[in-house]
Design goal:
Distance between the termini: 33 Å
Oligomer: single chain
Shape: elongated
Strand content: under 5%
Length: 96
C-alpha cells in the first residue's frame, strides 16, 4: 500500500487496486494527536505525582516517547483511513 514511509503507492501490489480515490488528508494526524496526547499526558501526570522528577527527566522521557508513538501510529492510521474511504465509497462533497 505504501511506496515510502507514508507515500501511497499508485496501485496495490497484490490486487492491482488503483489508489487514486484515496485522500487521507489530516485525518490520521488528528487521531494521533488525540490518542498520543491522552496517553502521554496521563503517564506524565502519574509520573509527576508518584515520583516528582526534575523537569529535565520529563523532557528526556516524554519528548522521544511522543515522537516515537506518533510516528509508529501514522502509517497504520493512514491505512485505516484509506480502507474506510474504500469501504464506504467516500468521495468529495459535490453540489447536486
Amino acid at each position: 500500500m505504501f511506496d515510502g514511509f507514508i507515500t501511497i503507492a499508485p496501485r496495490c501490489p497484490s490486487c492491482g487496486l488503483n489508489f487514486d480515490f484515496s485522500d487521507a488528508g489530516d485525518g490520521p494526524a488528528v487521531f494521533i494527536i488525540l490518542i498520543v496526547g491522552f496517553v502521554i499526558v496521563g503517564l506524565a501526570l502519574v509520573t509527576e505525582l508518584a515520583f516528582r522528577p526534575a523537569i529535565w527527566v520529563h523532557m528526556v522521557i516524554w519528548i522521544p516517547l511522543t515522537i516515537g508513538l506518533a510516528l509508529a501510529m501514522l502509517r497504520p492510521l493512514k491505512a485505516i483511513m484509506i480502507a474506510l474511504q474504500f469501504r464506504h465509497d467516500a468521495q468529495e462533497g459535490r453540489p447536486e
